[in-house]
Write a structure and sequence with these properties.
The chain has about 290 residues and is α/β, with parallel strands linked by helices. The chain has a single domain, classed as NADP-dependent oxidoreductase domain (TIM Barrel), CATH 3.20.20. Helix content is about 40%, strand content about 15%. The chain has twelve helices and ten strands. α4 links the parallel β5 and β6. α2 packs across α3. The longest helix is centred in the middle third of the chain and has 15 residues.
């Protein structure tokens, strides 16, 4: 699998990473999760991304992979209380949560601890950033990052505190190509893309009940990309589009099906998206961007 250097961290990460939210929330049997995670490592993936608030995902990862800890980079997120007796974005929560995460993950440190999508106002206060830095200085994480979008992401890049940015980027969400990606390159930030296939909303023939998918599904109705007519082609084209953007280092894809992981890896064997198709997707976006649902 293709490896890329994650900005100034120097970590050599696989272009395809594993996102653990689905295995944390959707009641997948442990044996299935273990087979999924171990198969991914066997095939060359070396990035696993989770969060303190992703249900039981940290426990699953710790149980399934603690014996292979040296074979992959472990990323988690902090900031959501997730059942702890402290409010979101309380600096005290970060110190408490990382200790719980390390215990669940069965490790003494993570490679990257990310602040989980707080607002610009919270970032500007500075106390949560200071709490992250304290965790790093204590040796519980190698690097710190911010997970979020738009003006908060811009501030996270330019404030100089963070090593990485995790942000939404896909065929339905292209604003970062002209905003945060150029800034991240300038500051040598590692860039991790979440939702790189836009939650595969083309699989829904009608507007999904889950409001989490509404924005992308509504945008799909306006964008009407030709490649979405073929469901087998759609995911590969969308994933290759995201990973073909200058400055993107790894794309986090979640699944609860071991076969989907193999399919995702196979999609990338075709390499970067060809220039003509890239331009067609970008031109369609620019033509209708002003009318897209927010």
């Amino acid at each position: 699998m293709e490896m890329r250097e994650l900005g100034k961290t120097g970590l050599r990460v696989s272009a395809l990473g594993f996102g653990a939210s689905e295995i944390g929330f959707e009641g997948v049997e442990f044996d299935t999760c273990s087979r999924l995670l171990n198969t991914a490592l066997d095939e060359g993936l070396n990035v696993i991304d989770t969060a303190a608030c992703y249900g039981v995902s940290e426990e699953i990862i710790g149980k399934a992979l603690s014996g292979r800890r040296r074979e992959f980079y472990l990323f988690t997120k902090t900031g959501h209380a997730s059942g702890m007796d402290l409010p979101d974005w309380d600096p005290r929560l970060i110190a408490t949560q990382i200790d719980r995460s390390l215990q669940r993950l069965r490790t003494d440190r993570v490679d990257l601890l990310q602040l989980h999508s707080c607002t610009l106002e919270v970032l500007k206060q500075g106390d949560v950033i200071a709490a992250l830095e304290k965790v790093r200085d204590a040796g519980k994480t190698r690097f710190i990052g911010y997970s979020g979008d738009r003006e908060a992401a811009v501030y996270a890049i330019t404030c100089g505190a963070f090593d990485t940015l995790q942000t939404s980027l896909n065929v339905f969400d292209q604003q970062p190509i002209e905003t945060t990606l150029p800034l991240a390159r300038k500051h040598r930030m590692g860039v991790i893309c979440k939702r790189p296939i836009g939650n595969a909303v083309w699989r829904h023939p009608s507007r999904p009940a889950d409001s989490f998918n509404h924005k992308y599904w509504d945008r799909m109705q306006v964008l009407r990309y030709d490649f979405l007519r073929d469901e087998e082609q759609a995911a590969g084209t969308a994933l290759r589009f995201t990973l073909s953007q200058d400055g993107v280092h790894t794309a986090i894809v979640g699944t609860k099906n071991p076969e989907h992981w193999k399919q995702n890896a196979a999609m990338l064997s075709a390499g970067a998206l060809d220039e003509a198709q890239m331009q067609a997707i970008r031109e369609r976006w620019k033509a209708v961007e002003a009318s897209l649902p927010q």
